[in-house]
Amino acid sequence: ERLRSNARASPPEPAQPFEFRALEAVLISVVGALQTDEEVLVGLVQGLLAYLEESVDRAKLRELLQYSKRLSRFEQRALNIRDAIEEVLEQDEDLAAMYLTQKLHGRARARDDHDDVELLLETYLKQVEEIVNHVESVSSHVRTTEDVVNIILDSQRNSLLLLEIRLTILTVALSSGTFLSGLFGMNLVNSLEAHPHAFAVVSTIAFFSIMALTVAGLRSMRKVLRRIN
Prior knowledge:
Blueprint: H1 2-9, H2 18-54, H3 58-89, H4 92-97, H5 100-104, H6 115-185, H7 198-228
């Protein structure tokens, strides 16, 4: 619709030959399809990015990955169209050869006399470049968001690992106290069965053993983390 409005705002010259009108119709169709696909795809991607800025959701991340691939394919398609138009604009002979009506009437065209078709191609080249620049900006935003999300997920995984290490240290410490109490709990005769303070002494030793191992393990973990950071 925007292309048609532009075409109505700057109508072609009455004497514009048929081949130029046909070329412009093709360019309107191609660029119009690009703009439609861009609006749909960019709208979906920006919606996902806005959601992920508020909350990290794995299902939305998978959707973003799929749309990111589609965005890359669309960007490559737009780049191919831009490169094709630029390649034509660089060839003076090809531009001069597009004046088919004059060639049909036997009128030769100078090699560098192709202002009309060059202006037509440059007009649509500018619109394609705007699409490419917009898509590249959105793609950069997607990559930045993916990097931030990966950092958040890595931080969450590290927190879980630290929790697991702490639980492991506590389990080892508790096992040492259990081992000590198990020794005295065996049905073996020793000199402490009748001792009035044996239970308190053994319980105290077991408790301090658990605390000592827990504190030592946590300190060792902190030293390792300092070295890593």
